[in-house]
Specification:
This is RIPR3 protein. With 277 residues, the chain is α+β, with helices and mostly antiparallel strands. Helix content is 47%, strand content 23%.
Length: 277
């Protein structure tokens, strides 16, 4: 292997997240998902570049005003602009470092993925050849290499998740037209991996809706999708309205994303959410 397991973790100063605390040599928690990681990485990098472009445009605008103000010698306003410019410049440097770190992690991930694929192909070739002492020793070594590459990929996935930011999810209410009547009560349950959000709402007489919570912060996950379940509350009984899943790959963008999810198969009840990354 051109990149050993210890060198991967030391070079990235990798501190395993809680999900990987029980990971030991030869004991794998789950199989890596290279295609899913690639999809999230591309969406993440695109979103980070959008933020970078937006702040660069803001910096250009402030710098232009800074020059005009300097010529007009309005000192108080000039120094306030100077402070804003320095703040935006610091944030741009932070974003650039963030992007470079994400790229570094994904590059290391791709290396380990290629090493694992190569070791897997060689293992299959050796397993089809006549059994000799040398081939058996090679198979043992190749099996060890596959395990180590797989562990490295799991650790890098955990490190990459640290750089995914936060999703601020806002409840915007149910849409159901004739299906929603004054006095109806509903419970919405949103889950992303181990993160859960349970909130209750009521349809008022003026057709407005009141909910006991309006916003929840979720930490993005490489492998898990949003699972949304809506139930209607009727006294002590509950009636399942519907369960849907929603991929988070489209949420890595600078603009708030309005989501309208069909809760029932026919779309007679929909759930409106807003996600800000």
């Amino acid at each position: 292997k051109s990149l050993s397991r210890s060198s991967v973790r030391s070079r990235m100063s990798l501190k395993p997240p809680k999900a990987y605390n029980s990971l030991q040599k030869g004991a794998l928690i789950w199989d890596p998902k290279p295609l899913q990681v690639k999809k999230i990485f591309e969406a993440l990098k695109k979103g980070l570049n959008e933020y970078l472009e937006a702040h660069q445009a803001e910096l250009d605008y402030l710098s232009g005003r800074h020059k005009d103000t300097k010529r007009n010698s309005r000192l108080a306003f000039y120094y306030d602009l100077d402070k804003q410019i320095r703040s935006v410049e610091r944030y741009i440097r932070k974003l650039e470092f963030h992007i470079s770190k994400v790229e570094e992690l994904y590059e290391a991930y791709c290396i380990q993925c290629r090493l694992r694929d190569g070791a897997t192909n060689m293992k299959q070739a050796f397993s089809l050849s006549p059994s000799t002492k040398a081939s058996r020793e090679s198979l043992v070594e190749l099996y060890k290499n596959v395990q180590e590459c797989t562990e490295d990929m799991c650790f890098i996935e955990g490190a990459l998740e640290v750089h995914l930011g936060e999703f601020h999810v806002k409840m915007k209410g149910l849409v159901g037209f004739a299906r929603l009547c004054p006095g109806d009560q509903y419970e919405v349950f949103v889950r992303l991996g181990r993160q859960k959000w349970r909130l209750k709402g009521k349809i008022e007489t003026d057709d407005s809706q009141t909910w006991d919570e309006e916003e929840k912060i979720f930490i993005p996950n490489l492998h898990e999708k949003f699972e949304i379940k809506v139930t209607e509350l009727r006294g002590l009984a509950t009636i399942l309205v519907g369960v849907v899943t929603c991929d988070s790959v489209d949420f890595f963008t600078t603009k708030p994303q309005a989501i309208i999810v069909d809760i029932t198969e026919l779309g007679t009840i929909k759930l409106r959410l807003e996600v800000l990354w």
